[in-house]
């Protein structure tokens, strides 16, 4: 194969089948901004499109991001928040499990600039600690908002924590199986630092048999930023889309917590109807698009909530 993927058959095992069916939410609650009905409809659209393309003899794949999409880094983020509590005197971070938004829901911040600013907007922390600069940099904007020391601390320390503590998002093994039954594959795509070994082991431990991972930052050689490609992360997703489709696959959907990454995949794909699926992970803050009710394709995790055994 003329392009670099990471896969290891040592991690092959049968994924567990969840017991929740027929619209009931088994396990942790979804984010308040994505209903079970919206999530189920989104995942079924992906499965239906995959089956249709497979029937045509094509090789459909779904791109799934890792951090805050396929993998939930709750332990890492809790440790970072606890450290920030000491470093910056934010007492609310001393016990991350008790952080509560204005609507009464418990939540912790995502590490991206968009998710962090959403977290700040959903809480009273800016008002409670006015001496702290709560802003994150404005991504992809030269001369934009610079961001404060707190977010810089959060972002830096997030990547210094043990990646082995991450957990697979609820329902992902079952969705992986249902997709395979319809003739499709999941390609996990990430520009996270380090080597692919830990990420592959985490996916396998969570019930993904023989995971396929497109790993590492890549450069297309095109200018960044450019139309539909905001930054280096988006350029990486663009690169992997071009490489994947040049190997004979069709990217039917991209599931990613960052709008800019999904836009890049759609721009690079040869398929006009590539689905762009926003993610608002359970208990986490999110990008604004994930809460937009006008967008049909949104999920919190990968639980299907209905019987698709057909």
What does this structure look like?
The protein is of the alpha/beta class and 310 residues long. It has two domains: 6-72 and 167-282 and 289-299, 3-Layer(aba) Sandwich (Rossmann fold), CATH 3.40.50; 74-160, no CATH class. Helices cover 34% and strands 12% of the residues. It is built from nine helices and nine strands. It has helices spanning 36-55, 74-88, 113-122, 125-128, 149-158, 172-181, 196-205, 232-246, 259-268; strands spanning 6-7, 59-65, 71-72, 167-168, 185-190, 212-215, 249-255, 275-279, 298-299. Strand 5, helix 7 (196-205) and strand 6 form a beta-alpha-beta unit. Helix 2 packs antiparallel against helix 5. It is globular. Residues 1-25 have low confidence and may be disordered.
Compact overview of the structure:
The chain has 310 residues and is of the alpha/beta class. It is 34% helix and 12% strand.
CATH C-level of the largest domain: Alpha Beta
H/E series: EHEEHHHHEHEHEHEHEE
Q: Unreliable runs, pLDDT <50, ≥5 residues?
A: 1-25
Q: According to CATH, what is the topology of the largest domain?
A: Rossmann fold
Q: Into how many domains do the coordinates divide?
A: 2
What is the total tally of β strands? 9
Which structural class do you get from the secondary structure elements? alpha/beta
Termini, distance in Å?
Answer: 33 Å
Radius of gyration: 19 Å
Instruction: Summarize the biggest pleated sheet.
Output: 7 strands, mixed
Mean pLDDT: 88
**Spatial strand order of the main sheet:** 1-6-5-2-7-8-9
Q: What would CATH call the homologous superfamily of the largest domain?
A: HAD superfamily/HAD-like
- The CATH architecture of the largest domain is 3-Layer(aba) Sandwich
